Amino acid sequence: MRLSRLVHCALVAVLAAGASTVPAHALALEQTCVGTEVTTFDPPLTLTARPVTVTVSGVYPTCTNTGAVTGTYAETFSLTASCLVLFDSGSALRTFTWGGTVAPSEFQYNVTSSAVAGQVVVTNTGVITSGGFAPAGAEQVITLVTPNVVQCLSGGVASVTGPTTLTIHRP
Predict the structure, then answer these.
(1) Which residues does UniProt assign to the signal peptide (predicted)?
(2) Measuring CA to CA, which residue among 141, 139, 112 is closest to residue 127?
(3) 10 has a pLDDT exceeding 50
(4) DSSP codes, 113-144
(5) 73 — phi, psi (to 5°)?
(6) I need a labelling partner for 31 at 20 to 30 A (CA). Which of 43, 47, 68, 87 fits?
(7) What would the pLDDT profile of 39-58 be if each residue is shown by its tens digit?
(8) Which residues pair with 12 in a beta bridge?
(9) CA 110 to CA 133: how far, in whole Å?
(10) Rounded distance, CA 77 to CA 137, Å?
């Protein structure tokens, strides 16, 4: 009983101090997923930049929301790329399909990529515009190993694989 009195007194002190309001910038976490993305290039990447069809497919076997315990996505687009420049900045649309009761989520995002310690880090930041979790902010981060130069010279790099995380939040 003494512990609950201490907790009660602490709560009263916090409320009296005016700390009961949630800061305007606080975010409510709706979903966090961890998985893997496979990115394929047709034709395979070489050291020479050229038009390439890129196909990405991702699997999230572990997600935190009980209504969407797994997730998948796939997208195909064209761009000019090489082993030296995998991705560029821009905007796109991707649909996450959930395993569970939540409807698919349409994700409209801006993409940026950067080379960090032998890896290409792709960050997709945007908004879930429709479907499950809409409206909400989201960020997806994909980390891919920089293509091997020997592969780039000998026949090209047909695919790269790496971990990906997804976070969906409401303001």
Answers:
(1) 1-26
(2) 139
(3) no
(4) EEEETTEEEEEEEEEEEEETT-SEEEEEEEEE
(5) -155, 160
(6) 87
(7) 999 999 999 999 999 999 99
(8) none
(9) 18
(10) 23
